[in-house]
Design brief:
Order of helices and strands: HHEEEEEEEE
Helix content: 10-25%
Strand content: 35-45%
Radius of gyration: 14 Å
Keywords: Signal
Protein name: Lipocalin-like domain-containing protein
Number of domains: 1
Structural class: mainly beta
Length: 131
């Protein structure tokens, strides 16, 4: 319950910023990325990771990582915090081609990385991490 409340409050929190006119969410596919996605690790297949919206009725788990894509290029990566909750790390996302997203985290604790969108349909996002 605490996790659901935390995620709901994070997704409702609006960040003040300037208007961004780039093409991050101009394609319908990229527009569908907007929102908070949590890792449905039970559904992973080989190197393809499966994510579902944070509103999905997940089975019990000892924690779920995830991320949030905002329309203006802002990104939040949710990692398991030392206190077993979620810890958000801010950054940016940018499309590189039709199915690759580059993620840059502000804290620079890890290098930028790319996610290849394998599929996005029926509320299921499947991605591969590529270098």
């Amino acid at each position: 319950m605490r996790l659901i409340l935390l995620l709901a409050s994070m997704s409702l929190f609006l960040l003040a910023g300037t208007c961004n006119t780039d093409s991050r969410a101009s394609s319908p596919e990229l527009k569908r990325l907007e929102g908070t996605w949590l890792h449905a690790h039970e559904e992973d297949q080989d190197d393809v990771r499966v994510y579902r919206p944070n509103t999905y009725a997940f089975p019990p788990s000892r924690g779920r990582t995830g991320f949030q894509f905002d329309h203006n290029g802002l990104f939040t990566q949710y990692d398991i915090a030392p206190t077993d909750g979620l810890e958000g790390r801010k950054g940016q996302w940018k499309a590189e081609g039709s199915n690759v997203i580059r993620i840059s985290l502000d804290d620079k604790k890890e290098p930028d990385y790319k996610l290849e969108i394998v599929s996005l349909e029926n509320g299921v996002l499947k991605v591969k991490r590529v270098e």
